[in-house]
Amino acid sequence: MSAILEDFIAFLGPRVTGQLQGTARLEIAGEGAVMLDTTGARAAIGDEAADVTLAATEQVFRSILSSEQNPAAALMMGKLKVKGSPQRALKVSAILIA
């Protein structure tokens, strides 16, 4: 596992633990994926399915997490891709920037 994925897992685990209903997958371009659920964050195993998948570059995710980038704006500008319910994606994003 890359240091970047480890970074995201360590940062996101406390934010999502007990907060997220269902599962979310963050696909970080060129690095891999992080799975999020009510128990925290972990590295995704292969093409593990989730209720919603968010895909972006590391920089876009870091900008969203630091509140420099609005997730809805990133989605509209094509910087953030969503597979699954856009409403669920926005709920996940709200937890990420909390």
TrEMBL record:
Residues 19-96 form the SCP2 domain. It holds the Pfam family SCP2. Transmembrane segments: none annotated. InterPro entries: SCP2_sterol-bd_dom, SCP2_sterol-bd_dom_sf. It comes from the Bacteria. This is SCP2 sterol-binding domain-containing protein. It comes from Seohaeicola saemankumensis. The lineage of its organism: Bacteria, Pseudomonadati, Pseudomonadota, Alphaproteobacteria, Rhodobacterales.
